[in-house]
Amino acid sequence: MSCESIQSQISLYLYDELGSVETEALEAHVESCGACSRALAEEREFFAAMSELPSAEPSHALVAECRHDLMREVYRTAPEPSTAWTRFTRWFSGETENQFAWRPALVVASLALAFVVGRTTSSDFSGLFTDVEEPSLEGPMTSFPSEPLLSGIESIALDPRRNRVEIVVEEVSRRRFAGHPHDPQIHDLLLSTARNSPNSSARLDSLDILTGRVDELDVRRTLLHSMVRDRNPGVRLKALEALRRQKDDPEVRRALIDVLRRDPNSGMRVYAIDLLTEQPDRKLVGVLQELVETEGHEYVRLRSRRVLQDLNASVDRF
Amino acid sequence: METVSVANQPWPEALSEKTLIRAAQRQDHDAFEQLVRRYDRSVLRVALHLLRSEEDARDAYQEIFLRTYRSLNSFRFQCSFHTWLYRVATNVCLDFLRRKRAHRDRWTAAGTSAEGLGPLDTASDDRASSNPDSLLACRDTAGRIAKALELLTPKERMVFELKHYEGLRLRVIGDRLAISEEAAKNGLFRAHRKLRAALKDVPR
Q: Which one of A237, A300, B76, B167 has the lowest number of neighbouring Cβ atoms within 10 Å?
């Protein structure tokens, strides 16, 4: 094999990309050829020089921050997971392919929903508004005419002598209300939706509208409720973001500590510890010591340890 | 039918990757996070190596995993998840390199100097930190290598970085970049030749 051919293969040799035959031939040639031996030595030096670049190993903090940002984005943009409620609404709007299979279960579900929705709307709001023929989106709140939404069959009785069937149907109606977000009734509906709606998209939309009024006590209480108790992490995150500016309020701090200790979602806990520890606070020492021992998320654990050190507090519990 | 209910339940580390992927395909965010945690450190390391900028690597990280998340339902287990994810990562980093190069070319074409302090000029180097002379020499070498790497086309750069710094086989690199092994080998040769020419007097 010629020197030119050997030297063209040296880099592949060092990268371990030559087959066994070529490797043996190259090694044998280099042993007996001064020029190719020098070329190999130079190539080794070049390889070593290329390793002079600083290490690109990501720090724990960088990885944790990237994860945190990613999961926030995932929760923010994710479509609503398929739940019994979404399947139910799809069934009624004719989206599902297998309507027949769902029908018996949904009749039962519709009864339960009829009861819940009927109670919520009739007891809280039905007396407040009057139906109007020409709906307007300006001015005071408008209640649009109702339309049947769904019905549940409560009982069926057959009278064989008269050949008649008696069916007791429970109906629920759908109503639309429109008005300014500050309208008291709209405001109450938004608060009620944020706390009670079975549809997490509706809860999220309500919080979206309410977040600008976090200074109002009832809005703040609802946000606190959502942040700590909502079952959907996207809704909890929305509430947490809305309360960010109130992080020094004692009630908000207590709720944040609750999130930090109990929220099953690590993104929420990361967010909570970042907010709570922006200003060192000795009242957090006990919680942070607990987290150093029990927290499963690396960033939260490391952050707890660092804040304890900044506060000159013991990392361990006694 | 396999059923996995995971709402608000932490995932055991030992759960099979297939189970996690299937759950993540059903919009289980906790399962997706577990998948992310298995691979994100090495993905971020690759991005840092390739892009040589923490800011770009952060952006690439987001784009890689969000792209993975959004197309997870198209994953059909025809290759390993690891291979699939790294293919996405490679493509995203390649796009970043192309955008950076296009940006630099625009600056150069406009007559503006693209010279300036890059991330490597300010990067710390623990290996040399105990010796100021060594530190200076190393920074100079590292800076020159970084500049030399910018001479490569994005694809040559990808091939070289994946080979030299990640130690991947040319066959795997070809697979990731959707090119043949031979094309990857040619790219490595060209990158190597350009770097040798640019760095012929680098102190060793």
A: B76
